[in-house]
Design goal:
2 copies of one chain form a homodimer. By secondary structure, the first copy, chain A, is mainly α. Chain A is built from 9 helices and no strands. At the A-B interface, helix 8 and helix 9 of A face helix 8 and helix 9 of B. Chain B binds a DNA duplex (30 and 30 nucleotides) through helix 3.
Chain lengths: ~190, ~190
DNA sequence: ACTCGAATCTAGCACCGCTAGACATCCGAG
DNA sequence: CTCGGATGTCTAGCGGTGCTAGATTCGAGT
């Protein structure tokens, strides 16, 4: 009898996703400090131990949210097309920064909290690879003779710095556009 | 009688600094998650409530550590002088990134954790002003016709992005120098 | 219908930031 | 020299956290 086993597995997968979505919603609504295992359990209408039958711990839940967030960022950047007279680089930068500004909790889980998503030689989640790939594609046209991957890392660093310092109110809120233009024209090269 | 009052105030100020130093040492040795009020109280050999007679809460202690960290960063950057054939911009960038790499916990308190140090119109701590001033001074020679303060914010953002992404193992550890050179030559302008 | 295993929950551990109220200690007036 | 009072410090505890052992409930197969 496979059907019963199948139904169980399907229900389990649905609940798995339910937990991830609940954590994400809670974080986006009230910040990560409001995401406790008790509140999360209440939100999904199960008791706390159920969370631990799906994830090794709270960190694993945050990590799952972060990885799905990477997928969304990749999707948003792929969809972003330059408007009239706009470089692809600028369109990508704007999409990235808009994502960081509109989903600060999600962005935090992805790149600020050190959730130890495998980044190095290990198996990197596909969602992350996709997001970085979009950045590479945007940088490509302006790389010239410069090393593409290295230049993309610089571009990403600049975006990440602007995103996090802006979120921490460390930069003048007006001047946002001027900063972006200055950064882009610098990277555009000679 | 002022002498007794004076002695008390002096002892109090010493203990104030003792707490800050202990918090900083604990954070640098084991990370901020290891800095609990209990461990901190044990380290300074007082009970927990004593901490609360000096600081409003744990956040205030972290904030104090962060502000002193800003002073140290400013001092390090002021001391950094370009070597033979090196631009002042590069010397400043290297000093900044070396600080971030060698004192990751301190850097975290200063710029990553949102400790709500007044940044905007409020009274900004002098240490912070000094640190930003050093960045401005380093950017000055290469600004050209570009707005100095805005360009400095871009420079800072790039440095901050590189520092945090490197610390989170998001960038290839080798290639560090190549990234820095690429970033600097981009900012150097045409 | 009953048994037995899997799924789920209750209750609790050790820790967290923080604080009220008991206690000690020391200063200055009588 | 004593003693009242202020000042400083500590003990003990509150409500919260992440996490888990053991009890309990539930449902599928014989």
């Amino acid at each position: 009898m496979v059907t019963i086993q199948n139904r169980r597995e399907r229900e389990r997968a649905e609940r798995h996703q339910l937990i991830i979505d609940a954590a994400r919603e809670l974080a986006e609504a009230e910040g990560w400090e409001a995401v406790t295992t008790r509140r999360l359990a209440e939100k999904v209408e199960y008791s706390q131990p159920v969370l631990y039958s799906h994830f090794k711990g709270k960190d694993a839940i945050v990590r799952a949210v972060a990885i799905q967030g990477c997928g969304e960022l990749a999707r948003l950047m792929r969809k972003a097309r330059p408007e009239q007279g706009e470089s692809r680089l600028k369109a990508a930068a704007e999409a990235y920064l808009e994502f960081a500004a509109k989903r600060p909790a999600l962005y935090d889980a992805m790149f600020v909290q050190q959730v130890d998503i495998p980044f190095g030689t290990d198996e990197v989640p596909q969602e992350l690879r996709d997001a970085f790939g979009e950045l590479v594609a945007a940088v490509g046209p302006v790389a010239g003779e410069r090393d593409l991957e290295t230049l993309t890392e610089v571009f990403w660093s600049s975006l990440h710095g602007i995103a996090t310092l802006t979120h921490g109110h460390r930069l003048r809120p007006d001047h946002h556009e001027a900063r972006l233009d200055l950064m882009l024209s610098a990277l555009q090269g000679p």
